Amino acid sequence: QVQLVESGGGLVQPGGSLTLSCAASGISFSRYSLAWYRQAPGKQRELVATITTSSTTYYPDSVKGRFTISRDNAKNMVSLQMNSLKPEDAAVYYCNAERRLLNLGPYWGQGTQVTVSS
Hints:
Elements: E1 3-7, E2 10-12, E3 18-25, E4 33-39, E5 46-51, E6 57-58, E7 67-72, E8 77-82, E9 91-99, E10 104-108, E11 112-116
Parallel strand pairs: 2-11
Antiparallel strand pairs: 1-3, 3-8, 4-5, 4-9, 5-6, 7-8, 9-10, 9-11
């Protein structure tokens, strides 16, 4: 059974930092591409960061330079370091794992809430 469990969400002031973590089980973790998405109320889920099996990363312009995705294959974990947080970063953040070439996934976690407010 595949499980992705996010943690680390919470309330942070604008300009603050937060690190999200996602622990995976039930998959060959090192063989999966990983990603973080977010969804704010009334908005579509949007991509925040991706990291490939070779640790190549991608960020949309909205978070580039502020967010950093990383993976630890030994611990089956993917993290998202978020700096210089803005009110518009507030959302539920989800981690995602998939192997597109083999049509495995995407698998999703349950999400963790990030609130950015003074």
